[in-house]
Amino acid sequence: MSHELGKLPYSYDALEPYIDAQTMELHYTKHHQGYVNNLNNALSKNPELSKWKIEDLLSHLDRVPESIRSAVRNNGGGHYNHSIFWSTLAPANSSNNAPSGNLCDAIDSQFGSFSNCKDQLCSAALSRFGSGWAWLALNKVNRLEILSTANQDNPISDGMCPIFGIDVWEHAYYLKYQNRRADYVNAIFNVLNWKEISERYSNACVLASALRH
Ligand SMILES: [Fe+2]
């Protein structure tokens, strides 16, 4: 089994004007496809790992042979992170512009308000030096946590469950925003798919609860 680039759930220009079509096309067809190709190439010499799901590989990097561990961490992370990213974005839509259900309650209870949560996510995205991601994740004690990771690392490698992430590699924004990462990070809040993100949170809670029993 080889890993595959999933279908993009919207057209390249669907997130305009916040994310431009050229960036979307390059990001998806070159960067994400590149991670998938490099991951499959690394795994090709280790057929015993070919049945592992991407989540299993990244949760158990210590069980991946050292000779390909960095390649799996970077390219497997790149594949997993971008798969989450595409699914948690959607064309701007006023009925899908804020958290709902359990996620809405958890954000209010832990951060005081959605606005505080957003501020902390923006801060995590802006303070990441160099390339990486800002995340909203469910941590080991089932609380929401905002963090950032370097390169293509994912919170799943630290035992957390990623709810959604903001890609702050320059390839995600440089064509349109150049060095203005803050403008890009603020803009992306217009195209977050809160229906999907809220569902991911509910599913993560169910999974975490099942694991505890
Ligand atoms: Fe990216």
Automatic annotation (TrEMBL):
<dbReference type="Pfam" id="PF02777">
    <property type="entry name" value="Sod_Fe_C"/>
</dbReference>
<dbReference type="InterPro" id="IPR036324">
    <property type="entry name" value="Mn/Fe_SOD_N_sf"/>
</dbReference>
<protein>
    <recommendedName>
        <fullName>Superoxide dismutase</fullName>
        <ecNumber>1.15.1.1</ecNumber>
    </recommendedName>
</protein>
<comment type="function">
    <text>Destroys radicals which are normally produced within the cells and which are toxic to biological systems.</text>
</comment>
<keyword id="KW-0479">Metal-binding</keyword>
<dbReference type="GO" id="GO:0005737">
    <property type="term" value="C:cytoplasm"/>
</dbReference>
<dbReference type="InterPro" id="IPR001189">
    <property type="entry name" value="Mn/Fe_SOD"/>
</dbReference>
<dbReference type="InterPro" id="IPR019833">
    <property type="entry name" value="Mn/Fe_SOD_BS"/>
</dbReference>
<keyword id="KW-0560">Oxidoreductase</keyword>
<feature type="binding site">
    <location>
        <position position="82"/>
    </location>
    <ligand>
        <name>Mn(2+)</name>
    </ligand>
</feature>
<dbReference type="Pfam" id="PF00081">
    <property type="entry name" value="Sod_Fe_N"/>
</dbReference>
<feature type="domain" description="Manganese/iron superoxide dismutase C-terminal">
    <location>
        <begin position="99"/>
        <end position="200"/>
    </location>
</feature>
<dbReference type="InterPro" id="IPR036314">
    <property type="entry name" value="SOD_C_sf"/>
</dbReference>
<dbReference type="InterPro" id="IPR019832">
    <property type="entry name" value="Mn/Fe_SOD_C"/>
</dbReference>
<feature type="binding site">
    <location>
        <position position="167"/>
    </location>
    <ligand>
        <name>Mn(2+)</name>
    </ligand>
</feature>
<feature type="domain" description="Manganese/iron superoxide dismutase N-terminal">
    <location>
        <begin position="2"/>
        <end position="89"/>
    </location>
</feature>
<dbReference type="GO" id="GO:0046872">
    <property type="term" value="F:metal ion binding"/>
</dbReference>
<feature type="binding site">
    <location>
        <position position="171"/>
    </location>
    <ligand>
        <name>Mn(2+)</name>
    </ligand>
</feature>
<comment type="similarity">
    <text>Belongs to the iron/manganese superoxide dismutase family.</text>
</comment>
<feature type="binding site">
    <location>
        <position position="27"/>
    </location>
    <ligand>
        <name>Mn(2+)</name>
    </ligand>
</feature>
<dbReference type="InterPro" id="IPR019831">
    <property type="entry name" value="Mn/Fe_SOD_N"/>
</dbReference>
<dbReference type="GO" id="GO:0004784">
    <property type="term" value="F:superoxide dismutase activity"/>
</dbReference>
